[in-house]
Amino acid sequence: MTRTALIVTTCVIILGIYDLVIVATNGVDQSISRFLQDTAFGSPLITFVFGFVCGHIFGYMKPSGTHSGH
User: Fold this and answer.
1) What distance, in Å, lies between the first and last C-alpha atoms of the chain?
2) In the prediction, which pLDDT does 6 show?
3) Closest CA to 34 of 53, 14, 42
4) Residues 39-63: what's their mean pLDDT?
5) DSSP 30
6) Where does the chain have alpha helices with state H?
7) Which of 24, 29, 47, 60 could form a disulfide with 40 if both were Cys (CB 3.0 to 4.6 A apart)?
8) DSSP, res 31
9) pLDDT at residue 54 above 70?
10) Of 36, 29, 35, nearest to 50 (Cα)?
11) pTM for the model
């Protein structure tokens, strides 16, 4: 696993655990999902930018040649 993959995986796991603990102790109103929803309704530009960035992250990139393709 590359360093980048390790960092991204670790961050996702930490955020998932954090969200689980917050929802279990404080309810859904304090969750990451609720924060993102409230932010999206308050400023649609932030939602657009988030989607734009995700589109570029997951968009097509030519293979680097380090993988055999199998």
Assistant:
1) 17
2) 95
3) 42
4) 86
5) G
6) 3-26, 32-42, 44-58
7) 47
8) S
9) yes
10) 36
11) 0.66
Tokens of 32: 């990451």
Q: Do residues 46 and 40 make contact, with C-beta atoms less than 8 angstroms apart?
A: yes
Selection from 14, 36, 12, 16 nearest residue 24 by Cα: 16
Spatial distance between the Cα atoms of 60 and 66, rounded to a whole number of angstroms? 16
CB 33 within 8 A of CB 19: yes
Percentage of the chain modeled with pLDDT above 90? 56
CA distance 35 to 15: 13
- From the number of C-beta atoms within 10 Å of its C-beta (0-12, 13-18, 19+), residue 64 rates as exposed
Enter the tokens of residue 48: 């657009």
Which pLDDT value is given to residue 68? 55
- Between CA 35 and CA 44 the distance in angstroms is 13
pLDDT tens-place string over residues 19-50: 999 999 999 999 998 998 999 899 999 889 98
